[in-house]
Amino acid sequence: MQNSSFYTKGWFIGLCLMALVCLFMPSDLLAAKATTQQAVATAGQVTDAADMAEKSKVQRLWDSTGLKGFFERGEPTLDEDGVEKPGQHGIFKLIMILVGLLLIYLGIAKKFEPLLLLPIGFGGILANIPYAGIAEPGGFLYAFYSMGIGDVPIFPLLIFLGVGAMTDFGPLLANPKTALLGAAAQFGIFTTLIGALWLSSTFGSINFSIQDASAIGIIGGADGPTAIFLAGQLAPDLLGAIAVAAYSYMALVPIIQPPIMRALTSKAEREIEMKQLRPVRQIEKIVFPLAVLVLCALLLPSATPLVGMLMLGNLFKECGVVERLSKTAANELINIVTIMLGLAVGSKLQADKFLSTETLGIIVLGLIAFSIGTASGVIMAKVMNKFAKTDAGKINPLIGSAGVSAVPMAARVSNKVGMDANPQNYLLMHAMGPNVAGVIGSAVAAGVLLALVGGG
Fold first, then answer.
1. Could you check whether the bond before residue 408 is cis, i.e. omega within 30 degrees of 0?
2. How do the domains of the chain map onto residue ranges?
3. Distance (Å, rounded) from C-alpha 373 to C-alpha 378?
4. Neighbours of 32 (CB within 10 A)
5. pTM for this model (two decimals)
6. Consecutive H or E run containing 444
7. Under a CB-based contact definition with an 8 Å cutoff, are residues 246 and 406 in contact?
8. In DSSP terms, which residues pair with 84 in a beta bridge?
9. From the CB of residue 37, how many other CB atoms can be counted at a distance below 10 Å?
């Protein structure tokens, strides 16, 4: 009995001691185990979150690389009817970068209009870098285009100022009838306009408006700044293709023109020698730009921006009292503007705008326009010879090809083909007459087109 009572009391005392321990033990010790378990779980979650964050950073880095941009489609776009079209694949941007490199190669290695093709090609590369947004609103190429070509075409006008300061209209003043050759060479502009509209009505994949066709036709004038000026006003989406075509054909004058010139003339016609031009007085050279400006203002105000800047530059050159302005316009100013103009045009070589059937049509039509312009000048010279009263009054039909305004390359080509037929036949100065007349003619043609379809 005593042992049983002892054990009972012992169990009772033990339970009381355990109760006292639990009652007075710090709560931190009770929560320690739970806290440890929670910490372990939280640490696991933090580790998972950190892993996910790292993966997210890597993903964001990959999403921002050009490599990803070249191998995925862009955002869907809406066509003119509001139908959603899938975005263009990024590989086309890579193709346009290769096109830009090709233009740079042609400018450096082949010396095809390097002053323009090099910055145009480089601008085309910059415009097609994925995610850079250089040619988009906020990018510097977009700013160049907006301030120099888009809203107000300052760059082409400043180029014309520099061209005027470098141009001598003396050969034209000495033999004014050669102005008809410069006018005839613009015939290719208007025939190509009709051809562009015909293509648009014949092929469903080509859609040229009257404004587009007018901008394409001006390629036939072989005047890059005029083509850029008109395209910027009438067909900005086609500006890249039009500018590249215009400058490419200007560079290819020595290749394109001679076969046409030989095909349309006989050996006897190519051998015609022209008498030396009379000297032109300075007063004539000063009055000429003012007279042209007045006539343009009275008859065709829409051409005044181009013609006016051309004549201002020429007045700087001929008046003899602003040599600093003349040299600045002909050197530093035109060089700086050429860089910005080339980059601005390159901004329009974006893949979604350039890689299309319309671009192929522009290239073909540009070649046709240039060829027709060359042929028209030669044919006009032959027609004028039919009305010449004496043999001394005849002109060599070869200088008619210089009516396209690729100054002075077209005149040099006329001289070279003439000397091939007759080594004593120096046609360079004679060819400069229609050549500089072609500069005025292309500007006037642009003014006519702008007046007729610019409001459409």
1. yes
2. 157-453
3. 9
4. 11
5. 0.81
6. helix 428-453
7. no
8. 78
9. 10
